[in-house]
Specification:
Strand content: 25-35%
CATH architecture of the largest domain: 2-Layer Sandwich
Largest sheet: 5 strands, antiparallel
CATH class of the largest domain: Alpha Beta
Shape: rod-shaped
Number of strands: 10
Number of helices: 10
Number of domains: 3
Structural class: alpha+beta
Radius of gyration: 35 Å
Helix content: 40-55%
CATH topology of the largest domain: Beta-Lactamase
Strand order of the largest sheet: 2-1-5-4-3
Order of helices and strands: HEEHHHEEEHHHEEHHEEEH
Distance between the termini: 141 Å
Length: about 300
């Protein structure tokens, strides 16, 4: 008898330890008396809801249910024939009136005359906080995307929940950026390429615009003087947050020398922090050539007029 009692006692000790130390909230209710609480694992209740046994024993479980979920909870707790193995989401109220999210499962047990209801609750407040932060990040990213929607790099990483809504806008903007005559590219704060249009890809002699992502100028430009000049100007934009507009610069290739009108614009997020820069090159070589030609013709005409009798 002593050995049997000892074994039973050991088993109870194990169950008691499990009951008291599990992270889930465990409750035994009386389903025939307003779902009054018979038993709880106090440690978990104090941890998540700040309630002690004295606060809850003999009280209705509905007391800790958020008002918006009381009707739902009553229906769930009354479903005697459905001891669900699936978790259902529910919102509770802690002792300080804070909202807390949980997943809930129920199980009816006992005799016909003495029914009990076993309830287990798994906290998902942390998950909800993470989801909330994700929503905030998604919202912030959406704002950035709306501010600089022509940047396809961010589209690649846009959360699916709003990508569909932006799809049409992006498609139109992509068509614009691919069909304008300017050479366009964008970089992060470390001057790594994040993307470019086809014209710029052709200018620096890469097959596909997508292949530029992650590369740096040193991987693409052989002229060391040009590398240094570009790096200094782009770093200045990122450091100061000030745009460089309508700057005239030369771009030499093996085949020709181009005269470019350059715009470098800092990309700033909603917190005022620099996240990179957008650069456009406008080939004004032809216009400059025509301007020089026109000036020469005017000079020649003036000389003729001055020397005419």
């Amino acid at each position: 008898m002593t050995q049997k009692f000892s074994s039973l006692e050991s088993a109870l000790d194990v169950y008691r330890l499990t009951f008291n130390n599990t992270d889930e909230l465990i409750i035994v209710l009386n389903p025939k008396d307003d779902f009054k609480i018979i038993l709880i694992n106090e440690r978990s209740f104090e941890k998540y809801l700040n309630y002690s046994k004295n606060n809850l024993l003999g009280k209705s479980f509905l007391k800790v249910i958020h008002p918006d979920y009381v009707e739902f909870a009553v229906k769930l707790l009354k479903q005697e024939e459905k001891n669900s193995n699936e978790w259902t989401e529910i919102k509770l109220i802690d002792k300080n009136k804070n909202e807390k999210w949980f997943d809930i499962k129920t199980h009816h047990y006992g005799t016909k005359n003495e029914k009990k209801l076993f309830v287990i609750l798994k906290s998902k407040t942390q998950q909800k906080l993470l989801e909330s932060k994700l929503d905030e990040s998604t919202s912030a990213l959406k704002k950035i995307t709306e501010q600089i929607p022509e940047i396809r790099f961010w589209k690649l990483f846009s959360p699916e929940k709003f990508e569909e809504a932006l799809k049409s806008s992006f498609k139109i903007l992509e068509m614009v950026i691919e069909n304008i005559p300017q050479f366009v590219f964008w970089k992060d704060n470390s001057l790594n390429y994040l993307g470019c249009n086809k014209n710029y890809a052709k200018l620096i002699e890469i097959d596909l615009a997508e292949n530029i992502i992650g590369k740096r100028d040193k991987n693409l430009i052989r002229d060391l003087d040009k590398l240094k000049r570009i790096k200094e100007k782009e770093q200045e934009v990122i450091k100061t947050g000030k745009a460089q507009i309508n700057q005239t610069e030369r771009w030499e290739t093996d085949k020709e020398e181009l005269l470019l009108k350059v715009n470098r614009i800092p990309l700033i997020d909603e917190y005022g922090k620099s996240i990179g820069l957008l650069v456009s090159y406008d080939n004004i070589t032809y216009l400059k050539t025509k301007e020089i030609q026109l000036r020469r013709e005017r000079d020649l005409l003036e000389k003729i007029m001055d020397t005419s009798p």
